Amino acid sequence: MYQNLKESMAKLCKYEEKLGGDLYFAIEPKPNEGHPAMLIPTVASALVFWNKLEEEFKITR
């Protein structure tokens, strides 16, 4: 599930970059919402997520 999230976000970023690159994407961690499949529960995990996008998919900030 986490890999699917990374791939989808990378595709979205690359598609938006082709259209001009004027949009910003943000991730909002929700640490107090106890969903059993939380993929990005903390700020640290959000930062790691973006770093992984940069490393694996060459997405720029």
Features:
61 residues; mainly alpha; 2 helices; 0% strand; elongated
Describe the structure.
By secondary structure, the chain is mainly alpha-helical. The chain has one domain (2-57). Helix content is 52%, strand content 0%. The model has no long low-confidence stretch (mean pLDDT 89).
- The poorly predicted ranges are none
What is the number of helical segments per DSSP (H or I, 4+ residues)?
A: 2
User: How large is the share of residues in beta strands?
Assistant: under 5%
How would the global form be characterised? elongated
Question: What is the typical, i.e. mean, pLDDT?
Answer: 89
Number of strands: 0
- Number of folding domains? 1
Q: Helix coverage percent of residues? A: 40-55%
Keywords: Carbohydrate metabolism, Isomerase, Metal-binding
GO molecular function: metal ion binding; xylose isomerase activity
Helix/strand layout:
Elements: H1 2-18, H2 43-57
Helix pairs in contact: 1-2
State the gist of this model.
With 61 residues, the protein is mostly helical. It has one domain (2-57). The chain is built from two helices and no strands.
